[in-house]
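Researcher: Next sequence.
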Amino acid sequence: MPRIVIVGAGSVMFTRQLLSSLFAHESLQNSEIVLEDLNPEILDRTLQLTRMMIAQHGLGAKVTATTDQRRALSGADFVVCAIQVGGLDAWRLDMDIPRKYGVIQEVGDTLGPGGIFRALRHIPPVLSILRDMEEVCPQALFINKANPLAPLVWAARKSSPIASIGLCYGVTYTVAQLAGYLGIGPWIEHPHSPDAWGKLMYSPVPDGVEFLFGGINHMSWILSLKHRGRDMYPEIRSLPDNPDVFQADGVRCEILRHFGYWSTENHWHFSDYVPYFRKNEESINRFLPRRWNLLDLERQVHAAGRNEIESQLSGRLPIAVRKNVLNAPIIINAMVSGKKVRVNANVPNNGLIANLPDDCIVEVPVYADGTGLHPVAVGALPRQCAALCSTNINVQGLVVEAALERRPEAAMHALSLDPVTATVCTLDQIRAMFDELRHAQRPWLDRWLH
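Model: Next structure:
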């Protein structure tokens, strides 16, 4: 049976979701699960919850927990990375300091000042995990779930021979939501509350929907979508004329109207990656009349989750075993059972998307089976879509260079090229913001940055 290690398992809600879906696959119900986290107190809660899940469902899985990373990784077959360096405290700085300079981020976990500094915090510990894997589990698959997803996988692939991929449920969520807009599936609310967030996790793509996509994480493009053989793109292109859809998804409707294709991520998230919607409060209010502060939502989700977990640990609530939108259990099951599946994953380009750089990380269809992972080449993106992706890739590449070559100035260049930051700030303001961010985040940044 596979040995599956979760690094950052102190994130009890994510680990519960991951294991709930993992144990829903019969071939994985006898797995050896190893939970690892630096915080022994929260790690123990995850261990208790996992033991209760296994007992309630009569599974044959074994679970252990440790704060020793190297011990956890020894002999692993799969390593799932769910770390969050600095937690919500660092995330708050990612949001608050740029706001002083007029850079208002909705999420701040992928691009922008927040995404850049999150990458700088996370790349060193990811490399530490990979160095240990090279010695104690060199054949294991490293599955990154942490954001910013693409730069972490890019740094991993550039620095280590370990097989590494990045997984995000954004493509599945986007297609399921798009089906709802088209009336061929249920309407799916954006995750603006803990309840809506919970429902999102169980929003599969409806039967009869076939689609092709390609791009980068959080900016993949739906290139084609059919329902029972019928091309749905003519109807997709009319969605901006639907007032309900425009109210729910104004940013992506505007991108569709002017660039011709629908993109992944909800409209709040997408607005962090392009220069058109966050120039000032007026433009933000026009396209994003309802705000979405993911940091505050995360606090609400954590509070609601803590209450639910307390009820589960006390035995008042059962712990479900149920498939959800997470891709990691699907891939692990396919590789263990040999049953072929198609998922979306983030992998080195190497020609998979003809008009994006070979060394960047792209999000494409990937087949998984008993022989491994097999990415699908999707050809060239529409030129305008590739151009938008390139603005993000340029920032990602500089951040990776900054972390791997220990060059703070490359990180400053990345921030200077960020689409939203460059729309709002002068270069002098950007440098002042950069210096303030790196000073404030001393506790979590690698010492080279200072």
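Model: The longest strand covers residues 219-227. The chain has 19 helices and 13 strands.
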